[in-house]
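Need tokens for this chain, all 308 residues.
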Amino acid sequence: MTSPSPITSTSSPEKIQNALFGIGLFYLSLWCLSTLDASGKWLLGVGVPLLTAVWMRYLSHLVLMSMLILPRKGIRILQSRAMKWQIMRALAMLVASVCLFNALRYLPQAQATSIAFLAPLIMLAMAPWLLKEPKRLSRWVAAAAGFVGVVIVIRPGAGLDPVGVTFALAAAFLLALQHICTRRLAVDHPMTTLFWGGLIGTVLMTLVLLFRLDESLSALANLSAWRWLVMISLGLSGGLGHLLQIHAYQHAPASLLAPFIYLQISAATALGWLIWGEFPDRLTWVGIAVICASGAGIALYEWQTRRH
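Here are the structure tokens for all 308 residues:
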């Protein structure tokens, strides 16, 4: 007997309304995360050091989480039942942020985002070994199709900087590791994971910048008011994006929201076009379509499989 999906259930129209509201929140979160990437790319373009931008991204994220989470949840929200995975996830997310920001320095935002979206497919392909999940041919086919899409995007005639491509691919693998750690952290409250990611990243980046203190202080001292605002917005847009996603998952199941994550490429393309006049050519769009179809397709397939 097939159980009703969250969208087609006849039990109450409120389920449909909640699901649509969750999808709306999820799409807003994707725009926030694309704004984070665009702000980082812009700051690096005007001369802000990479590590300084990443440090500010984590610091403002931590301040936002402290203001929103601690007054409501208290200090108990810091208690984790899987601290090892919290640390591993935070490290993977931190290095992925450095790699992705560096990729955005060399690549248009749409292309960098598309390459990074290999991460969910890599995670699914590696799940049998890393998460002890059943081996599924469909996941490997989807991952292979995603790699074909990336090859089309980074083809020799695309004119993409190989340094940027290398950093984007590294970010994809690190984000896949982050996703795997996040799956292991299902035993913890989402806010706990969100807070520890910001805290560990802030502490580590602060320690790193102590060895480059003169460069960092000089860069911060020469920032205009507008650049300071953009710097602070890094953590705000990232933190808001993650908070919106948490609330989206409270209104709609993750299996329903999974295909919509690829809409972030549309947000990245729009921002790249509005700010820098970057727009992918036709063949690049073919590669992007292959990546999106492989990821969204396997998400829809597994959702349908779970219903039976």
